[in-house]
Sequence to fold (400 residues):
Amino acid sequence: MRDPRYLISYAILLSLPPIFEILGIARLTSILAYSYIMSIYALSFALLLGYLGLLNFGHALFFGIGAYVTTYQILWAGVPYPLAMLASMLIGGLAGAGAAFISRKAFRGIPFAFITLTLLLIVYFLYKRRELRAISGSEQGLLVPTPQMFVSPLIPIMASLIIIAYMVVILIESRHRGVVASGTSRVSGTYLSRNNVTWLSAAALILSVSTYILTIGQMSKPEPYRVSANLYIVALITLYLVHMAIKMITETPVALIWIAIRDSEARAETMGYSSFSYKTLGLVIAGCFASLSGSLYISYSSNINPERAFNPILSIYGLIYSIIGGLYPIEGPILGAILVSIIENFLADYMGGWSLVIIGVAFIVIIWLLPNGLAFYLWRARVGVIKGITRRIARIKSRE
Fold:
């Protein structure tokens, strides 16, 4: 994630809402905001499946906890939305620890999948009961007012400051000590990678233009547009931070221990690693991020009910996102969630419920033809193109 090219991608995405408005496809802003929210959910699901081999059919439980706990805090306690999101993440992590404790005797494979599914179904059917409609909202759901932060024209500036802060981190981490020799003089000091400086300069330029367009554009627009654009920005920046966090986690020794446990739990235990502790850690992290996606979802839908929050189909969607996009590289689930969300929304307009059938067929075809997911093959094609260009340049230089 220290690659500054990620920053350029996110900076470009940040500038899309005004462009969609000009092109007359403003609805795509809302669809992409939803896809970013589900990308966070997909990343949390893929973290468990890819690094620990844990298929969590009850993953929607964390999503629903995040959605409902955030709603309760806003409606009943008047907690500011950002603080409510953080508290929901904490409770989602505790729920992950609780699920790990309940599953401790069968913390692997099919038994774990069905234990978590059972936990999800218990909560799902409890929340659908009429006796609990005061806290669940029943079929009508609980109406969530739009948080005031989504009306503010300062959201683009705050988002830019977050990205700029990470630029500074990359610059600091890319410093290296060295010695430059020229003739008889030698100069030692700290130097920056020329490649990083180039990419960061490009990202800063794109970010400046994006921030200006978004800020100026929002001032003359009605409130519904500002809410939609700001939700898009908040969802995108949150996805960026989660993506960065998970990327960093997968580069730590903990990720290597997870892989060792996934490949051979007995061997990992022999080496002195507690499989229960490390699996619990993974489930806690996944629970935090899945709850965060649920917290964001209530701002997108402005309404939450048991069918949306705890539907078991949502866990299947986590699997679909991960398989279509691919578990590796970590960007795969993001690609899968964005593609499926866009296709599903557009197909639903023309084909209704048949859109799910088409997604199911696409799921089967990709498993047959691209078993490692779209992101893996795109990454491999990119590496092949870069190698080909490098060889071609080397050949041209050798002829000269």
About this structure: Residues 5-177+190-310 form one domain.
